[in-house]
Amino acid sequence: MKKILIAEKVHKNIVNLFGSNDIAVDYLPEINRNELLNIISNYNVLIVRSAVKADAELIEHGNKLELIGRAGTGVDNINVDAASRKGIIVMNTPGGNTISAAEHTFSLLLSMCRHIPQANSSLRSGKWERKSFSGTELFGKTIGIIGLGKIGREVAIRANSFGMNLVGFDPVISEESAAELKIKLLSLEEIYPIADFISLHVPLTDETKNLLSKKTLDKCRKGVRIVNCARGGLINEADLLDALNDGHVAGVAIDVFENEPLIDFTLINHRNVIATPHLGASTDEAQEKIALQLGTQIVKWLEGKEIEGSVNAHLLNIYL
Ligand code: NAD
Ligand code: MLT
């Protein structure tokens, strides 16, 4: 019988689903790296979110591994190449957390514009400061949405309802489908100087790493405000801090960081930065949906039915 290990906190309905299908599962959400390396060879399936690094070393130790399931979207914490070379299927749950991530993006955007976290802390500390927290409206402003996949599009729908002008970039979206969302497709070079707000919704890849760095931040208009609810590493954090310090960037709202959990708090302690600890998908609805989606995909795979949600089917075909 195949054995499944859940190595991060995933909604318990996945455990119940496996249980009702008589599938053995160990739920060890607090497991540390060394323990994981020691026991991974007992398992056929590993389920993670974004904290466990399913890197080449872990994959090498998992000599029975056949499938790595990502309860979420981004697979940048999984070495997909190393897995593919060993014939291991990597699957994620596209769409399960789209709405939550889009809503979190908008929460960050609005909170940044109206200094809500800073004003809340000030009030809680017994102060009644009104002058320091004057904000900025979204209405009539231009938002540059970089990455117009599932989340980028939901952000666009919400930006339209706030009366914003939308520009965007995504190499695979057609002008027609962008126009349906009232997004004007432009190149990055065209977006940077005109966007009042930039919101990132691309995966972290070799191409998108440091998408926003000194070179590109310099091209942005003075006073730009930036939201990153996609992935740490898309923005060079040291360059961003410099741009905040010299006033070129007026505000930043971030959910994701180069290093997670966060070790260096310098950036988030800047007065014009608001931040959350990777909470984009942390809602009851998203976690429930994702867990059921991944569980159902794995049950189907175990039953020998079609493989859904695989991100490396094309690589498996090459390597096997
Ligand atoms: P998606 O695959 O539906 O969309 C990603 C889009 O980015 C695609 O349309 C793709 O063409 C585009 N893209 C790729 N490279 C690009 C580039 N260089 N320039 C412009 N566009 C590019 O994915 P999604 O579900 O919308 O998720 C987007 C990102 O959000 C992922 O990185 C995901 O991990 C992250 N995410 C974060 C959270 C969170 O908790 N903060 C939650 C869910 C997803
Ligand atoms: C994702 O890519 O799905 C997000 O990072 C959400 C998560 O894993 O919590």
Description:
With 320 residues, this protein is an alpha/beta fold. It has two domains: 3-96 and 284-319, NAD(P)-binding Rossmann-like Domain (Rossmann fold); 98-275, NAD(P)-binding Rossmann-like Domain (Rossmann fold). The protein has helices at 13-20, 33-39, 56-61, 80-85, 98-113, 116-124, 150-161, 175-180, 188-191, 214-217, 237-245, 284-302, 313-319, and strands at residues 3-6, 24-27, 45-48, 67-70, 89-91, 142-146, 165-169, 183-185, 197-200, 224-228, 249-254, 273-275. α5 crosses α7. The longest helix has 19 residues, at 284-302. The chain starts with a strand and ends with a helix. Bound molecules: nicotinamide-adenine-dinucleotide and D-malate. D-malate binds at residues 49-50, 72-74, 97, 280-281.
Query: DSSP strand (E) fraction?
Result: 15-25%
**Count of beta strands:** 12
Main beta sheet, described? 7 strands, parallel
Encode the helix/strand succession as letters: EHEHEHEHEHHEHEHEHEHEHEEHH
Low-confidence stretches: none
CATH homologous superfamily assignment of the largest domain: NAD(P)-binding Rossmann-like Domain
Binned, the helix content reads 25-40%
Query: Which second-level CATH architecture of the largest domain applies?
Result: 3-Layer(aba) Sandwich
CATH domain topology of the largest domain: Rossmann fold
- The neighbouring-strand order within the major sheet is 8-7-6-9-10-11-12
Distance between the termini: 24 Å
Shape: globular
What ligands does this structure carry? nicotinamide-adenine-dinucleotide, D-malate
Total domains, how many? Answer: 2
Number of helices: 13
